[in-house]
Each structure stands twice: as C-alpha cells, then as structure tokens.
Amino acid sequence: MDIQLSPLHYVYLSFIVFIMALLIKRRDTTLICVVGIFALGLIATESLSGSVSGIFNSFIFAIKELIGTILIISIIVSMSRILIKTGVNEMMVAPLTRFLRSPALAFWGIGIIMMVTSWFFWPSPGVALIGAVLLPVAVRVGLPALGAAMAMNLFGHGIALSGDYIIQGAPKLTADAAGLPVSSVMEASIPLVIVMGVVTTAAAFWMMRRDMKNGTWRDGLVTGGSSGGNGEFNEIDDKIVLPHRVKQALALLIPFLFLIDVLAMFILNLQGGDATALVGGTAVFILIAVTMLAHRNQGLEQTTSYLIEGFQFGFKVFGPVIPIAAFFYLGDSAFTELFGKVLPEGSHGIVNDLGVALANNVPLNQAVGAVTLTVTGSITGLDGSGFSGISLAGSIAHLFATAIGSGAATLTALGQVAAIWVGGGTLIPWALIPAAAICGVSPFELARRNLKPVLLGLAVTTIVAMFLI
C-alpha cells in the first residue's frame, strides 16, 4: 500500500536524524525536541498560538503516559531511604554474606543479589541498599572494590534495568513508542536480556581474573565511597535505632510481601500498570509502617519527608525524559489527539507511514534492522540516561518492523537493551557515579573496565536478535 507522505512526515524524520546527530556528539536533545514539537504544530495548525499550545499539551500527554512509572520509582526510592536509615537493609542481606567466601563467589553473589534487589527497588536505590553492607565482606575475601562495583553495575544497571520485569518502567516507554503491548516487549526481551547478561558478566569476570593473575589489574580507588565518601546515596550517617527483634521481623516481612506480589502477578495475570500498582501500593504500606515504627511521634511528618525525597529523585531522573518522550509520542496516536486529523487520508500515524514508505523504497532485512536498532539504542544512551532515548528506539523499531514485515517486539526490546546497557549506568562515567561512589572507585576506571564486556555482549545479542526477528 502506497502512503502519500506530507511535509509533516519529512519534518518529523528530519528532527529524528538531527536528534541522532546530537546524541552522537553527546549534546542534550531537549531543546531540539521542543523545537520539533513546535515545528510540527505550526505545520499542522498553521497557527502560532496552536503550535505554542501544542508544546505544553504534548508535555501533558507525555506526563500522563509516564506518571505511573515516575510514581513507582519515586515511591520505591522513598521506601529505600527509611530502610537504609533504620538498618533494615543490612538485616535483609546479612544471611547472604556467609556465602561470599571467595573472590569468585563474592563477584557472582553480589551481582545476583544486586540484580534481584534492583528488580524491586531499581538499581540506584539498590546500590545504597546492599553496597555498603556487602562491599566490606567482598573486599575481605579478596574481591577488589572495583570488581564489586562492576558486579553491582552490570547486574543492576545492566541486566535488571534493561529487562525491568517488576516495575516495568523501561518496557512501558519502549512499548508505547512502538505501539505495542507492554507484555509483548517484555516477552521478546527475555532471551535478549539473558544472552546480553550472560555474555557480558562472564566476559567481565574472565577479564578481571586474567588481569589480576597477570598483575595488570588497576583498582581505580579514589577517596570516598561507602566508608566516608559524599556520594549521592551516602545519606545514611544519622542512623535510626530500632530494637533488634523489630529489625529482624521487618527484614523477613518485607521480602515476603514482595514475594506475595510476584505470586499475585502470576496467579492473577497482572501485567503493565496493574503489576506496577501492586508493587507501588505494597511499597507505600512498607514506607508508612517502617516510618511510624522508627519515628513514632514524628512519623506523620517524616512519612511526608521521605515521600518528598522520593519524588525529588523521580522527577530529577525523568525531567529530561518528558520533552523527549513528548516529541516521539507525536509519531503515533498523540499527533491526532493534539493537532486534529491533518495527516493524509489513510494515514496510521507518522511512524507507521514512514515505515510503509521505507518498505516500498529501501530493501531492509532482519540483519540490517537488528544492527540499526542496536546502534540507535547505543547512541541514545550516550547522554548517560538510559531512559531518555528509548522512546526513539521504540519509534524506530516500529518503523523498521513495518518495513520488514515482522519482529516489532524483538526490535523494540533490542533497542531497549542497547540503550539501557550503554546509558543506564554501565558505560557512561557520569551515570556510573552511584556504584562508583559506594565502592570508592573512579567512575572513569569503572567505565573502562565495563567497555569491552558490554560491547561484546551487544554484538552477540544483536546476532541472536537477527534470528529471532
């Protein structure tokens, strides 16, 4: 079917190319996305006031789409703050420390604990929850601090965040941009996340052991870290004392409650927003209960204080995402909702139309599509925020899948995995600060150690994706 492309299509495509170029140059794309929304609005409405209003309305549309994700992350961070202050987090992981008896066990043990924790708490709070407790144990059995940082980083900001199967923030963003159900993107991402995780962590561990044996290992230690640094997540100096039995009970109850949530998701077939709401509601109850136990008479005020901290974190993380997502949502249903039916007759959205035109004019295949999505996802991650560019990855996946005729979910998941592994906190130094600060190592040295394993993982994952499309 031939689609008649209009100036709107070409303007949208031009801005996507421009945004990609800026990302390669490691420049911020927020301003360009706003200009893009204005330009599309001006062409669509032929009205200055309509195009200016369209900027604000597109932000509202994006916030409506993202608010569930912003809220769940904010609430999880709020809860993690009180668990850290009361030392409940230490009690939760204490039984696991007895298994960390060698450098190898410490590396894989810290990694797996970090991955599971990050599924429920998100990686940055997860680093604070377990890093300060497990790092001294790991160092004592011979694992370098940089090795511990690698394990926390690759398993948390890499494996856990790229799949994001419990909170489901990442798959919602990419699925929305690609016009797919969240469940289909999550299902398609499972083999890709497994391949990427296994290849990357195995390569990182092998390279670490090789360099330690050859005497070429550099620890990259800096002053600071969990034993006295001033990292973003080291706000744990003023500990709140709770009776030992109370902490023990909470340390058992909290994982049990989240385990019930996971079981409920399977039994009740909860996915997407419903699953997120269940985890979020549980986190709110845990926050209130622990805060009231810890602060007693000040519990009412302190609950609000922790929520404010969480919301500040959530909007700080997603602030740059909103204008970028607003632009890419215009590639689908948001455009008609905001600017009316101004696209050509028979149009199914700007991205759909571009995909059909691409299919009619450019010979695309599974290999080209997979490589392009990996490169696109990686480029969008260069700004150090794995989330800011995954809407672009979703839009391009939709476009390519339309051209190829299959593989929409796999291409979307591949772009998501690439974007988050690069920008979510494994390769970009300024995104590595939480893990580096907790372990007292240089974020630049940590990024250098992660580089080869992550690139190897991306290459193998891309090849696997070619056969899955």
TrEMBL record:
Residue ranges of the TM segments: 6-24, 31-60, 66-84, 104-121, 127-143, 150-168, 188-208, 249-269, 275-294, 306-330, 418-439, 451-468
Tagged with keyword Transmembrane helix: yes
Alphabetized UniProt keyword annotations: Membrane, Transmembrane, Transmembrane helix
Superkingdom, taxonomy of origin: Bacteria
Keyword Membrane: yes
Record protein name field: Transporter
